[in-house]
Amino acid sequence: MEKSHGLLIVLSGPSGAGKGTLCQELLRQVPALKYSVSMTTRSPRPGEVEGIHYFFRQKEEFEAMINGDELLEWAQFCDNYYGTPCFAVEQAIQGGQDVILEIEIQGALQVKKRFPQGVFTFIVPPSLDVLSERIHKRGTESEEVIQKRLATAIEELGYVSEYDYVVINDEVPVAVDKLKSILIAEKCRVKRKPFVFKGESI
Ligand code: 5GP
Predict the structure, then answer these.
(1) Atom of ligand 1 nearest to the CA of 54
(2) 122 Cβ contact partners less than 8 Å away, ≥ 6 residues apart
(3) Domains of the chain, first to last
(4) Whole-prediction pTM
């Protein structure tokens, strides 16, 4: 059978919805999936490692990447730049590898324009109270930043209709099973794979 391109899976949703946790667990359970490491101008949080969690860059360097059209998408989120470097993503997909992006909504909408065959999945928290509790529990942001993130989250929930799938992140194992089911279903789509039956194209 003809080798098909890899899937581009875009996971987004409000800050605190638990995208990061779901993404890590999915990567652990599906090792063939490649995580696209983003670039950001925000400072590293304790425990975050350069090149694994993010490529941490100065504003000037990030802006040079924007001007050089080296980013598949980029956005400003709560006073910092975030973006997806093109090179590794395009190469992996063309080589048949599935790639996952964990990005905010403005970036996801840019990817949708450039790459509509991506799989766009929106992660939502079970309620706004849970969302607020999760962001507070993380304990990595000041109250001012938390309030900004919560306000952004409420705005972001309005974009769910732009996505192909929505997954409520109540219990992590259940949500991860849903993500794995989405991957399996997408791989079975006829339009993604020319179907050949005993050597005859149908
Ligand atoms: P955090 O600062 O909590 O790591 O990320 C803040 C937001 O930026 C999250 O919603 C996260 O998904 C998003 N984000 C991370 N990397 C990228 C990226 O490359 N592009 C865009 N557009 N958003 C990103």
Answers:
(1) 16
(2) 12, 13, 159, 160, 162, 163, 165, 166, 167
(3) 1-33+98-202 (3.40.50.300), 37-96 (3.30.63.10)
(4) 0.89
